[in-house]
Amino acid sequence: MYAPLSKDDKTALPSDLIGVSNRILERGMASDRLTAINPLTGDPLTGLGNAMRLRDEVCAVVRERASDPAPFAIGLANLDGFKPINDLFGPAAGDEILRQVAQRLSACIPEGASVMRMGKDEFGFVLPLVFERTGAEKIGTMLRDVLSAPFALGSRNVRLSASFGFAIHPFAGNDVEDLIKSAATALYRSKRRGRAQITVYSQEIAQEMSEATELEQALRNAIIADEVDVHFQPIVDMRTERVLGFEALARWHDAHLGFVSPERFVKLAEERGFIDSLSETLLRKAAKAALSWPPDLFLSFNLSSAQMTNPATAHTLLKIIERAGLSPHRLELEITETAVMADADIAQRIIAQLRASGIGLSLDDFGTGQSSLGRLRDFTFDKVKIDRAFVSGLGRDHASEHIIRAVVAMCEGLKLGVVAEGIEEVTEAQTLKAIGCRMGQGYLYARPVDSAATQAYLQRTYHP
């Protein structure tokens, strides 16, 4: 049974949505939209129509308007974060949330429109009176806000969000399958952009997604063919400019695509779910290269958000460096605050396992998250890396200097090392040294180069 929102919950809603929440209660599960269940076109869990029903309704609208065509819209919605809630509270609680979602959507979609459950945690809409992009975005915004209110599970309230994709007939497809495919493409783009996003299909979006798929296939093939390379940038003691270690950085030059930015292909690997295989390939290569360096130099390697939500990460990384013959004490892993917060409990277990093995840990991009001080309190790190955004502001932005000064002082008190990233000017290095920052990296010292060039760099600059 749907539990009404409490007074406190309603105050968290925009005023124009409180009326919607009241209408949900008034209509209840006895709504005509939820009672007539056809075994072929109905969803027994929610009482809504199913994917077949959506196809039937789209075809009916097309037939009705055959003599006088007019645009209409369909939409798809996918719940963000439903699986963790389902795993945490159990399938029965997940089913209850899906019923509440169905009830809310059924109560607030426009007159003449219909809502269906397409499967799992995805819902579909047929919107005969939505003719263009702005109207679809307005409907999406309203539905998103309705679903952002708390869901009651017994004595608990849980929150989740939803992402939306819309397609307008006939611009996004003439037949039902093309229209659904276009809406799914728009939904996928919304999911790529983060939580609670709304996208209306366009040719530009289709081209963007097509290029991303082409890039994905090329990258997968490059990983299999061992064509993704690793370059190294030194981290130095700024007082003496002595090399302390190297950060490993991914590089990929495709025969057809040319140089592909790591910001682009690493993010794509995360989104498409194969960052683990890319990371394992890079770590294997980096560890092998590090064996030829002087033994007092460390290897710094970046972990992704996805890896920090995988309980097997620590075991996998240790196996890779064990096979390579690299001591765990020579490896430092860089983790962003965003990665730590993706699943704090799992991240804490991974970090504990890594530290127990002797691997060092750095908090990367410090100062760009929302709760960095809390992360230093809750997790155990060896170093903090100051984001280049602050370093590049030195000399022009007094606030950047004050922030760096405060970070250095705080890390001294916590006995943490500090590395400044992105140093390009002599004046930046001078200011950082005067502040008390000991370690740095950036183009001022050296650009990232491959393993052979790294060896040549060491021969020129390394002094025990």
Structure description:
With 464 residues, the protein is α/β, with parallel strands linked by helices. 48% of the residues lie in helices and 20% in strands. It contains 19 helices and 16 strands. Strand 6, helix 8 and strand 7 form a beta-alpha-beta unit. Helix 11 runs parallel beside helix 12 and helix 12 runs parallel beside helix 14. The termini are far apart.
Task: Explain the layout of strands and helices.
Layout: H1 7-11, H2 15-27, H3 32-35, H4 51-64, E1 72-80, H5 82-89, H6 91-108, E2 114-119, E3 122-127, H7 133-147, E4 151-153, E5 156-158, E6 161-169, H8 176-193, E7 198-200, H9 203-224, E8 229-237, E9 242-254, E10 258-260, H10 262-272, H11 275-290, E11 298-302, H12 313-324, E12 331-336, H13 337-342, H14 344-357, E13 360-366, H15 372-378, E14 383-386, H16 388-391, H17 398-414, E15 417-420, H18 426-435, E16 439-440, H19 451-461
Parallel strand pairs: 6-7, 9-11, 11-12, 12-13, 13-14, 14-15, 15-16
Antiparallel strand pairs: 1-3, 1-6, 2-3, 4-5, 8-9, 8-16, 9-10
Helix pairs in contact: 2-6, 5-6, 9-10, 11-12, 12-14
Give the gist of this structure.
The chain is 48% helix and 20% strand.
CATH architecture classification of the largest domain: Alpha-Beta Barrel
Count of strand segments: 16
Shape: elongated
Going across the biggest sheet, name each strand in turn.
8-9-11-12-13-14-15-16
Question: What do we call the CATH topology of the largest domain?
Answer: TIM Barrel
Stretches where pLDDT is under 50 for at least 5 consecutive residues are 1-22, 24-35
Beta-strand content: 15-25%
